[in-house]
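Subject: Re: docking follow-up (pyridoxal-5'-phosphate)

Dear J.,

Thanks for your patience while I sorted out the input files. As discussed at Tuesday's group meeting, I've set up the holo structure prediction with pyridoxal-5'-phosphate included as the bound ligand rather than trying to dock it afterwards. The sequence and the ligand SMILES I used are pasted below, so you can double-check that they match what you have on your end before we go further.
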Amino acid sequence: MKSIPVTSPLLPPLEEFLPYLEEIWHSRILTNGGSMHKALERELCDYLGVEHIALFANGTLGLVTALQALRISGEVITTPYSFVATAHSLLWNGIKPVFVDIDPLTMNLDPAKIEAAITPQTTAIMPVHCYGTPCNVEEIARIADIYNLRVIYDAAHAFAVRDEGGSVLRHGDLSVLSFHATKVFNTFEGGAIICPDAKTRERINNLKNFGFVNETTVVAPGINGKMSEINAAFGLLQLKHIDQALERRRAIAALYRSLLDPVVGVRCPTPFTKGVANNAYFPVLIDDDYPETRDVLFQRLRAQGVMVRRYFYPLISEFPMYRGLPSAASANLPVASDVAQRVLCLPIYPDLSLADVRLICELVIAASEV
Ligand SMILES: Cc1ncc(COP(=O)(O)O)c(C=O)c1O
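The structure tokens for the complex came back this morning:
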């Protein structure tokens, strides 16, 4: 039986990568902002339509450093419906996460519920553009403005996403990307912070290099968050293939949608139509009128070789280091708790064939026809 993974990395032909390696060997510069790193920064700014970027070894170090750079402390409002690194970055900074429920349509932080969670200790909001679907950025900005809060977007899923005004990464004080192997754009491991100005970028660059500002001066207990030349080189190569990869994702998502939309009990995500989506994931919600529960369908598809994932289940707020927080109570998070019980992410990646998409849909439809 063949196995279909939930994702598979965008990996250009190996021979295309060899000239980059030769250049690195020739230069003998392996890290610390070499020519590959500089070139990737330039090309990413062009591609994404942003002005200032700081590359990182991974997205988690980007989140931890973004909080440091803005000196965030006290309490931060965030979503329980995300990958655990979102909230972990707060704990690594000694910040208390305050979980707020999500919107059932976008699965992002529900702005209508943010104000009730603000206390005198609140200093920032950390929303996530979950699955690459933009948050309600206007409403979040309005609330942040009234209460003088900073906004750091976890934009790990939002590479290349654009709304009507341009890159979705321009919103908030900072946006943090992940270039992990499973992401739309990968550098094996990697990440980046999108910054509003050169000065903030410089501060972030110092923080990711142990806090050094020059050879002999250290101004903060910075971390080693630098991206290596080899990762940056791979990013440069990825950029040559990214448009084609995004096009493939679009075709796959469209086929899933056309085959699954009519299926009773299977809810496809509301398509993002006010800009350019990246189709980073294809989540579906399994409703009560589907003949199987989400978990029975999950087990059946896995037994049939389709490696679906339950992103995001359990909620972050259910993990031991968070569940004692008052905001982690499931009564405070009814929508997120319900969605986490219903969600199933179907395979989506550039090399997935449309025949396999049809096969996966047939397996889902099979139960609904029993
Ligand atoms: C929403 C979200 N935030 C943060 C991260 C962490 O990124 P990284 O794996 O690059 O550290 C990920 C994925 O890994 C993620 O999905």
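A couple of observations from a first look. The CA atoms of residues 45 and 51 lie 6 Å apart. The domain at 243-368 is CATH 3.90.1150.10 (Aspartate Aminotransferase, domain 1).

Let me know if you'd like me to rerun anything.

Best regards,
T.
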